[in-house]
Design a protein that fits this description.
Elements: H1 10-21, E1 26-30, H2 36-44, E2 50-55, E3 66-70, H3 74-80, E4 85-90, H4 96-108, E5 110-122, E6 129-130, E7 135-137, H5 140-147, E8 152-157, E9 161-168, H6 171-178
Helix pairs in contact: 1-2
């Protein structure tokens, strides 16, 4: 891994530029924490009309223009919400079972040509990372399982702790590839 711990916020910049470049209008963040990414999105992605963050914990006030759903589990949110999203960032519980459920639920409510971003998918080693400096857990195992699926395109960037981008494979993409 080339990126260092001091460069951990690089993944925010990657997400912001992709969301902006794809002209996405809706963004869901699972595990919003203190809202750093949501704040960057509100500042730099003018086409985003809906930014929502979900977190099991209560916390500081959200950036202006961001809907925060606090003290709600992601399982409850996905079960009860009913909206669909252009982009979804999974960065809540850092262990495989919940990360897998969050990703599967995200794919169910993802708009066509939407993207799911997952953090903590490329830890520095295979042991669960749970120190005070870094919490990657074993989310990388969710990434490995997704990468085996033929109905998904999965790319992991070797940023600190990893950023994985997931999208559904679409027939029209396959038509383009076959026609070459």
């Amino acid at each position: 891994m080339k990126a260092t711990h001091e460069q951990t916020s690089n993944y925010y910049e990657v997400i912001v530029e992709i969301v902006k470049g794809c002209a996405f209008e809706s963004f869901l963040e699972v595990g919003i924490g203190c809202g750093v990414l949501a704040g960057k999105l509100t500042e730099r992605c003018p086409l985003l009309t809906q930014i929502t963050g979900v977190d099991i914990l209560d916390g500081s006030p959200p950036p202006r223009g961001v809907e925060w759903i606090r003290e709600t589990s992601s399982d409850d949110f996905f079960r009860d919400d009913g909206r669909t999203w252009d982009a979804i960032f999974i960065d809540g519980d850092h262990m495989r079972p919940q990360a897998t459920r969050d990703t599967i639920n995200a794919l169910k409510v993802l708009n066509d040509d939407g993207l799911v971003f997952m953090h903590d998918t490329y830890p520095p080693n295979a042991e669960p990372q749970t120190t005070s400096e870094m919490v990657c857990g074993d989310v990388y195992q969710t990434y490995l399982a997704l990468a085996e699926r033929t109905d998904l395109e999965v790319v992991t960037l070797p940023l600190w702790c990893g950023l994985t981008i997931v999208r559904r494979v679409h027939e029209r993409r396959l038509w383009t590839m076959e026609g070459q």
